[in-house]
Amino acid sequence: MEQFYQLGWTLDSAGGASGEAYMAEQDGQKLFLKRNSNPFIAALSAEGIVPKLVWTKRIETGEVVTAQHWKNGRELESQEMA
Questions:
Q1: 80 band by pLDDT with thresholds 50, 70 and 90
Q2: What residues pair up with 67 in beta bridges, in sequence order?
Q3: What is the pTM of this model?
Q4: Dihedral, CA of residue 48, residue 51, residue 52 and residue 54, to nearest 10
Q5: Between 20 and 30 A from 42 (CA), which of 4, 48, 67, 69?
Q6: Which CATH number fits domain 2-81: 1.10.260, 1.20.140, 3.30.200, 3.90.920?
């Protein structure tokens, strides 16, 4: 993820179990970055279930990074998902 720092992006951990999700910010633009996300995310994005994919890039380590528009949100409680 060093390449994003070099391009002037600020990265903050977005939490999660994998530790591979970040909020990236540059010049007021916010993106959700995820390393090695599930390829199914493209299908979910195309159907409008998750935010639109902005781009997908393979970085120098061979990992694939996907970027989606950042959406402010909150964690759902279990009773909200029933």
A1: very high
A2: 33, 55
A3: 0.77
A4: -170
A5: 4
A6: 3.30.200
